Amino acid sequence: MPFGTCPSCGGHNLRSSKIRGPAERLQSLIGILPFRCRQCGARFSTLLWDLASWKYARCPNCLSTELGSWSEHYYNAPLSVRMLVGLGAHRYRCELCRQNFASFRACKERFSWKKRRAAAQNAATGRDQPDKPQP
Ligand SMILES: [Zn+2]
Ligand SMILES: [Zn+2]
Q1: What is d(CA 66, CA 96) in angstroms, rounded to the nearest whole number?
Q2: What is the number of structural domains in the chain?
């Protein structure tokens, strides 16, 4: 089964799911995270390390490939992320779930608010409001 595919219906419309119970908490520590399929609702765990085999950068939270970027002025990145950036990784920000991260992978699709606004005209005024990630 290729990563990013629902084992139940083969769909690609996945989102990360909340960690439930100590077993999943333990799994998450080694990079196995629960996902849920938006198509059929199946819930399953998968090894997030497979992300590294992806060709393009993806949001680690919602798996979106449509990414913007963040600035050090607004985002107090954790040391691990700053180290990656120091090594030449790209700064990526998922505007959909406000996840900031760093990746060496290329961006498949640049996020643009214009594009989003066109898709959802009645969206709130999309001023980029950086927020610190929850600990
Ligand atoms: Zn499914
Ligand atoms: Zn995201």
Answers
A1: 9
A2: 2
